[in-house]
Amino acid sequence: QVQLVESGGALVQPGGSLRLSCVASGFSFRTYTMSWYRQAPGKEREKVASIAAVVPGQIWYDNSVKGRFTISRDNARNTVYLQMNNLKPEDTAVYYCSVLIPPPRFWGRGTQVTVPS
Predict the structure, then answer these.
(1) What is the pLDDT of residues 70-115, one digit of tens each?
(2) DSSP structural state of residue 89
(3) CA 83 to CA 71: how far, in whole Å?
(4) How far apart are CA 93 and CA 36, in angstroms?
(5) Are 22 and 34 in contact (CB under 8 A)?
(6) Contacts of 65 by beta carbon, 8 Å cutoff, 6+ apart
(7) What is the chain's Cα-based Rg?
(8) Half-sphere exposure (CA, 13 Å, Cβ side) for 110?
(9) Is the confidence at residue 10, as pLDDT, over 80?
C-alpha cells in the first residue's frame, strides 16, 4: 500500500533552516508529482510546494515561501525534500507529504515545524 513517511521537523529559531524529507513506498514514485502541504493550528491545510515527476520538471511554490523554500526529489531513493531557509514564525505548522494517485490523494502523518516568535 501507499506509504509516505515525513521526517526532519523541529523547533528552530527565526531565520534558521530545516530540511524535511519524505520517503515514499507502495507506488511508482518516479511517475507522480509530489507535494508538500502544511497545516497551522486553527487553519486549513494549504499547499506549499510541488514538483513534477520528470526531473528537471515543473516546480510550483506558494507565494508565502517563494525564495525561501526549495523542493527537490531523488527518484533513486523514492524521496522528496523540502529545504526551508529563513524560517519565520508564520511557517509554524505540521508539514505533510502528499501524492495524488488520481483519485485519491494520499498523505503522510506529518512532521511538526515550530518557529517561535
Answers:
(1) 999 999 999 999 999 999 999 999 999 999 988 889 999 999 999 9
(2) G
(3) 6
(4) 12
(5) yes
(6) 48, 49, 84, 91
(7) 13
(8) 12
(9) yes
3-state secondary structure of 77: coil
Interacting residues of 103 by C-beta distance below 8 A, sequence separation 6+: none
Rounded distance between C-alpha atoms, residue 14 and residue 101, angstroms: 35
Task: Give residue for cell 515527476.
Answer: 53
Query: Element (H or E) spanning 59, and its range?
Result: strand 59-61
pLDDT in tens, 31-81: 999 999 999 999 999 999 999 987 677 999 999 999 999 999 999 999 999
User: What is the spatial distance between Cα 61 and Cα 75, in angstroms, rounded to a whole number?
Assistant: 20
What distance in Å separates the CA atoms of residue 54 and residue 91, rounded to the nearest whole number? 28
